[in-house]
Amino acid sequence: MLTAPLALHRGQNLRPRTPHHSRRRKSRVARYFEAVLDVVADLRVEAHELELVEALVRELALSPAEIRAVHVKIYSGMLSRFVEDARIDPDEVHLLHQLHTLLSRLGWAPGEPVSRG
């Protein structure tokens, strides 16, 4: 069985690896993307992590559409890695379900309805 961090981070395109970028130069969405990746890397979201992400959303003034885009990018990154071998095995299905649940706890997960209000 794959370990959770390996499953999330084995994709080259999921996370920028250039350390010379400063926080000042990163976009609001990029900062949120990195924060969410850090939180879901172990496929568990603790209460304090949830509070940190919620505070970051407020600080960055992210719109629901921006949050959804980040969550889709993370989910599709894992999905695209799993589909490379043209099959999704039960362990991968389990990891996808866990990630979906965590993204939902952070506000929204792909496939969930959005309020129109």
Can you walk me through this structure?
The protein is 59% helix and 0% strand. The chain has helices at 4-9, 28-40, 47-60, 64-83, 90-105. It starts with a helix and ends in a 12-residue tail after the last helix.
Shape: globular
Structural class: mainly alpha
What is the N-to-C succession of helices and strands? HHHHH
Q: How many E-type strands?
A: 0
Q: Please state roughly what percent of the residues sit in beta strands, choosing from under 5%, 5-15%, 15-25%, 25-35%, 35-45% or over 45%.
A: under 5%
Salient structural properties:
globular, 117 residues, mainly alpha
Describe what is shown at a glance.
The protein is built from five helices and no strands.
Topology:
Blueprint: H1 4-9, H2 28-40, H3 47-60, H4 64-83, H5 90-105
Helix pairs in contact: 2-3, 2-4, 4-5
